[in-house]
Amino acid sequence: MPDYTPPIDDMKFVLSHVVGLGRLPEHPDFGVLEADVVGSILEPAAQLAAEVLAPLNHSGDKEGAVWKDGVVTTSKGFKEAYKAYCDGGWNSVPFSQAHGGQGLPWLVTFAVNEMWQGANMSFGLCPLLNQGAIDAIEEHGSDAQKGEYLEKLISGEWTGTMNLTEPQAGSDLAAVRSRATPQNDGTYHIFGQKIFITYGEHDMADNIIHLVLARLPDAPEGVKGISLFIVPKFLKDGTRNDVLCTGIEHKLGIHASPTCTMQYGDKGGAVGYLVGQANEGLKYMFTMMNNARLSVGLQGVAIGEAAYQHALTYAKERVQGAPISKKGNTTTPIAGHADVKRMLLSMTSQVQAGRTMAYEAALNLDLSRANDKAAQSRVDIMTPLVKAWCTDMSVDVASTGVQIYGGMGFIEETGAAQFYRDARILPIYEGTNGIQAADLVFRKVLRDGGAALNILMGDIKKDMECVASGRGDDFESITTQMKAAYQAVESASASLASLAAEDMDYAAAISVPYLKALATLWAGALMARSAKAAQDLMADGAGEGDFLNNKIICARFFAESFLPHSVAHATSVRTSARVVVSSVF
């Protein structure tokens, strides 16, 4: 089967005509980023993704990372691919020019990063975690720490990790037991064990910079007593720090990404350096986690795209039976069967919706860094929506891909199963999707009286009003479905506020269906915006007709097939809280 091909035309369409490059703040070097400039960035990235990373995806899955005596060896070709990735400057794309970065906007970066994740998610996890470490040090580190670590992390010469989870402390970080002991020279000795550390040990970079949560001796109990420390694998003088990978996990998927157990302080204490203020570590770590959560949502888009491409190629090649409408012995590729068409349309419409959601969040991340307060509110509420909806979507899309293959999808050699296995981690790590729903309901909707929600609903209403001006049956149908979903989510939001006032457990019980209702509505609004942009381009005689018409078809399919799910989830919000809370297990 052919490997992944980055969907550059789709990316350019979303960037230029749906989300909008023109909405970006000006770049200090490039000024207003035009489509041709962005294209000159995307094309060589696509070449690296397709020609270097994608061919390693299936072999890396079969071979996996190997641990022996504390040393992790990555799959064949990964080390060389990482060097090519760094030599091309790709690790530095979004970061500060003051430390060797290119300072490009996150909107463009997300398009680039989608390619790494779609080509080879196990590989893409290394720069994803490094990205979060850079953000945390840049935002909260001292000038000396920035000077020592950022340039090499941004170039990719070093990589970064985030160390939160412990055997007894998964989502509950209040249970963290790792400890930090102050030393006379201003450093700290770190002791403890961390698990599930992505790329905690590997052979692709010269040094690994761990960001570790630990407690000081006089720290208060709970999350208020957690501090953040930089713990390098190698110290400044070149000596090995007292940190060791004691094993890697054998997992359902992402086999080529080493998921490490890290032991700190077996030989007297791992040297660590406090980031920012003591006992503020959780706040600092959220800088990494929020960055990573959007990136994990983007991973969902990427692996969904890869699974769709894989299934589409097979459906066009696999000859089996005749369409019901045909008589005689005529046979056809299965892509000609109506139900397979439905499955393919389901896959691509969801992926296109997820891509637009992730890119819209990235744009608002750029705007928020230019001190746009409304944009920051959008980022806050969009983050759990992108992470949860896009990752749940990826599992559904990858499963549909296996279904299109039929029995051959259950056979590992075809590669369809790998997408399904790899995608399954996405709704779990960087905060399970249940945690995303709780974050949405309690922190992003109820805590500020619905201010951020009102901004997002206002955006959705504008899209709904815009698409209503579209011409033809497609837009009439899209508008009808959007109105029904919008009214259902409005009603669900009122019910959420009422239920929370009565009993917070009621709000927790319906947090997941509420997230699904809101996220699906937003996804539908962005698909509607895409359809209107496509129709406007066709009216202007711009763009390729079949490509643009497909955008309208996908938007209508999404409206008719998925926006009713928003209504159903909203109904669950209004009706199911009490029965959930009263149930006993």
Structure description:
This protein is an alpha+beta fold and 585 residues long. The protein has three domains: 8-155, Acyl-CoA dehydrogenase/oxidase, N-terminal domain (Butyryl-Coa Dehydrogenase, subunit A, domain 1), CATH 1.10.540.10; 159-279, Butyryl-CoA Dehydrogenase, subunit A, domain 2 (Beta Barrel); 432-585. The protein has helices spanning 8-19, 35-53, 55-63, 78-87, 106-119, 121-140, 143-155, 281-317, 338-368, 373-405, 416-423, 433-446, 451-467, 473-502, 504-509, 511-539, 545-561, 563-575, 577-582, and strands at 66-68, 71-73, 158-163, 179-182, 188-198, 207-214, 227-232, 243-248, 259-264, 270-274. The strands form two sheets. Strands 3, 4, 5, 6, 7, 8, 9 and 10 form an eight-stranded mixed β-sheet that branches. A two-stranded antiparallel ribbon has the order 1-2. Strand 4 (179-182) and strand 5 (188-198) form a beta hairpin. It is globular, with a radius of gyration of 24 Å. The mean pLDDT is 96.
